[in-house]
């Protein structure tokens, strides 16, 4: 099974949370510290299946899913 890394460009991200909602594995979370700044945080990165839904649905093109 491949490993994936989710990179959120904080300069582009407006914290809308769409990526959090579309993730089938709930890898991204708006939690504690990140909620204050309005950015999603990949907290369950080992669960990422590389579907790239977060990347495709991001209206600001602020997310990249990279195969490691």
Q: What does this protein structure show overall?
A:
The protein has 68 residues and is α+β, with helices and mostly antiparallel strands. The chain has a single domain, classed as 2-Layer Sandwich (Alpha-Beta Plaits). 24% of the residues lie in helices and 21% in strands. The protein has 3 helices and 4 strands, in the order βαβαβαβ. The strands form 2 sheets. The chain has a two-stranded antiparallel ribbon. Strands 2-3 form a two-stranded antiparallel ribbon.
Task: Fill in the keyword field for this structure.
single chain; 68 residues; alpha+beta; Alpha-Beta Plaits; two-stranded antiparallel ribbon; 3 helices; globular
Give a brief outline of the structure:
With 68 residues, the chain is α+β, with helices and mostly antiparallel strands.
